[in-house]
Amino acid sequence: MEYSASELMDMVGVRSRKTLREKYLRPALDLGLIEMTVPDRPRSRNQRYRLRRGE
User: Fold this and answer.
1) The pTM is what?
2) What pLDDT is stored for residue 55 in this prediction?
3) What is the pLDDT, as a whole number, of residue 53?
4) Which run of H or of E encompasses 34?
5) What distance in Å separates the CA atoms of residue 55 and residue 52, rounded to the nearest whole number?
6) If you ran DSSP here, which 8-state letter would residue 35 be given?
7) Long-range Cβ contact pairs of 44-49 (< 8 A, separation 24 or more)
């Protein structure tokens, strides 16, 4: 399942995109837990995030 930044903000109870990015998205991306659906355009309005599948 894929989620937008707005949907993730609602899920975790965060009001600021900056907070979501710094405290949740960046660490999860760095650890390889989640991935972007449009990795070559990280600021795309169509960007979504999904759990990475086990390799």
Assistant:
1) 0.87
2) 60
3) 82
4) strand 34-36
5) 9
6) E
7) 47/4, 47/5, 48/2, 48/3, 48/4, 49/2, 49/3, 49/4, 49/5, 49/8, 49/25
Torsion angle in degrees (nearest 10) through CA of 30, 35, 40, 42: -80
- Ramachandran class of 30: left when φ > 0, alpha when ψ lies in -120 to 50, beta otherwise: alpha
Tokens of 32: 């390889």
The encoded tokens of residue 20 equal 């979501």
Of the candidates 50, 41, 35, 54, the residue with the CA atom closest to the CA atom of residue 2: 50
Mark 13-23 as b/e (b = at least 16 C-beta within 10 Å): ebeeeeebbee
